[in-house]
What does this fold into?
Amino acid sequence: MRIGIVGGGIAGLAAAYELARARSGGVDVEYTLFEGRPQLGGSLASEIVNGAVLERGPDSFLSEKPAAAELCRELGLGGELIPSNDAARKTYIVTRNRLVALPDGLMFLVPTKLAPTALTRLFSLRTKTRMALELLHPPRPSEGDESVAALVERHYGREAVDRLADPLLSGIYGGDSTQLSAQTVLPRLVEMEAKYGSLTRGMLAAHRKMREMAKNSPKTQNRGSAIFTALRGGMQQMVDAIVARLDAVSLRTATPVTGIEKTRQGWRIDAGGVSEDFDALIVAASAWAAADLLAPVDAALASELGAIPYSSSITVNLIYDKSRIGALPEGFGFLVPAVEGRDMLACTFSHRKFVGRTPQGKAVFRAFLGGMRHTELLAESDEALVATVRREMREILGARTIGAAAEPEFAQVTRWSRAMAQYAVGHKARMGRISARLAALPGLRLVGNAYDGIGVPDCIRLGRKAARELVGVEEPAQAPRV
It folds into this structure.
């Protein structure tokens, strides 16, 4: 069996790894992976500069989703996994040019502790009163999909959308809470509203249940509590380790796919001026790219794929000598609400988030710009973007912390155009229609961040699952934690 893979990001690489694994286990399968860029890994790209690990794309993955850590252990990288420094975890929201810490007891978007919520400067008295009265919300059956902003505003008011939902979701999706699907992005909250009415009561009930499970389950007790997990040498380690396990002859970099055709026997791929036939096909490209390629095969499927919106982003890494800057506030960094009218979306103090990836005496700042509201920034020069970040950091952190004369030792700018899929209102229904179209196209699988999870673990899970389905290999038992 011959399988073609279109796209060499982490989803495509995970699929190729699974096929190589099946082949070494005796399955009669060959694969060829096509990637238009010279390098593999997609947005997983890191490098070490002056001893500091700099991430151009994702710097870590959620610990609670096992697919990424499991793959790393299979690749022999178990000893390279490091947890986020959650003992020092503290996140701020920029509010009228001041840093206001997220209140204790906040479970994503839901306040669960009365005193910290009452005392925070993040919300007005009117919003705090509304948060207290939210406990009286009656159950509300789901009446179809709606935006995250609509759900949050119904329970906690507009200020909670502007000061909480928007910056938090912008940090994850680079998107707009007025466009993102509550049904897809926050399914647990939708379920809680239907069952409990009050999101606060629902979250407290879920927290009690989790505590009981932790108390009664030794496995749960032994799990690390860090929210994020990274690789000591950067996320590039995972990419390099996967590529080392693959057959170099099967990897076609700098070879963009220009056409896909359905044949009687399977699928035909046009790439690099050559046509090749395959029994099955895994498309791991962005949904908008997949739409262009699959339009001649199924116009309706292509239309659905092309309608999935994407946001762009810019990452700016700055390395400073600590002797040149003042004392930073505690914690991991800050988020910037859109209502603040700034270009920055967020800034991470990377040297604090993961211990051991930055030399002593150095500080690494990772700033994010762009998103759905500021796509025009992609056209700015590197120098202009670095100047913008330095100016806004100075205005937010104070001139005593980051003075105008404090020059970074190193600056790195990376643009990610149309890289992050947006789960807009109606995404779940769209996925149903896409699945129906795929059912009529045997041997075709779509994987990536546009379908069922945007994170690295989700892409790995989907890539490996698609490969197993095509070769008829059952999912292995979960690997033991080491």
The mean pLDDT is 93. The chain has three domains: 2-43+237-309+423-471, 105-222, 310-421. The CA atoms of residues 265 and 279 lie 7 Å apart. DSSP finds 17 helices and 22 strands in the chain.
